[in-house]
């Protein structure tokens, strides 16, 4: 959602989706979604923050160096929240955690052969975890 401040003749209003509202709060309530804004952190440095409410109504924010990245993430968040599939980055599992859960599922639920599970575990340990084990799934 893009909310814009408009001042005309000393009167300030807020516009969202072509509608005019008397306050920023009213605009955000009428058109929920992710809001991208610039944050100045010093004389030279600035960042872009994506503020939004997740599907459970909890307010969250993420910060990016480039506006392009913030806009792209805001669009993705809006789609994910509407579909009730959004996972905040700080709550996302790492590749290592997901891999271990997958191996456990292969052993206990699918009941694959021990040699198949051992081969998969060896592949994860040798190739996947060293390169991507620390990466959060939300960043992929």
Topology:
Elements: E1 3-8, E2 11-16, E3 19-21, H1 24-30, E4 35-40, E5 46-53, E6 59-64, H2 67-82, H3 95-108, H4 114-132
Antiparallel strand pairs: 1-2, 2-3, 4-5, 5-6
Helix pairs in contact: 3-4
Got a strand count?
6
Return the average pLDDT rounded to an integer.
Answer: 83
Strand order of the largest sheet: 1-2-3
Structural class: alpha+beta
Alpha carbon gyration radius: 22 Å
Domains, number: 3
* Global outline: elongated
DSSP summary: helix tally: 4
Largest sheet: 3 strands, antiparallel
Order of helices and strands: EEEHEEEHHH
Q: Which percent band covers the strand fraction? A: 25-35%
> Span from first to last CA?
24 Å
In the predicted model, the low-confidence regions spanning at least 5 consecutive residues are: none
Assign a percent range to the helix content. 40-55%
Please explain how this structure is put together.
With 140 residues, the chain is an alpha+beta fold. The chain folds into 3 domains: 31 residues, no CATH class; 54 residues; 48 residues. Helix content is 40%, strand content 25%. The chain has 4 helices and 6 strands, in the order E-E-E-H-E-E-E-H-H-H. The strands form 2 sheets. The chain has a 3-stranded antiparallel sheet, with helices on one face. Helix 3 runs antiparallel to helix 4. It starts with a strand and ends in an 8-residue tail after the last helix. The model has no long low-confidence stretch (mean pLDDT 83).
């Amino acid at each position: 959602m893009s909310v814009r401040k408009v001042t005309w003749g000393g009167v300030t209003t807020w516009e969202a989706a072509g509608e005019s509202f008397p306050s920023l709060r009213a605009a955000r309530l009428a058109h929920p979604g992710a809001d991208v804004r610039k944050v100045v952190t010093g004389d030279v440095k600035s960042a872009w923050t994506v503020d939004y409410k997740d599907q459970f109504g909890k307010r969250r924010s993420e910060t990016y160096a480039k506006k392009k990245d913030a806009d792209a993430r805001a669009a993705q968040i809006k789609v994910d929240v509407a579909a009730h599939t959004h996972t905040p980055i700080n709550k996302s599992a790492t590749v290592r955690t997901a891999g271990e859960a997958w191996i456990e599922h292969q052993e206990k639920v699918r009941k694959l052969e021990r040699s198949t599970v051992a081969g998969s575990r060896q592949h994860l340990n040798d190739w996947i975890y060293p390169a991507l084990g620390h990466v959060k799934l939300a960043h992929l």
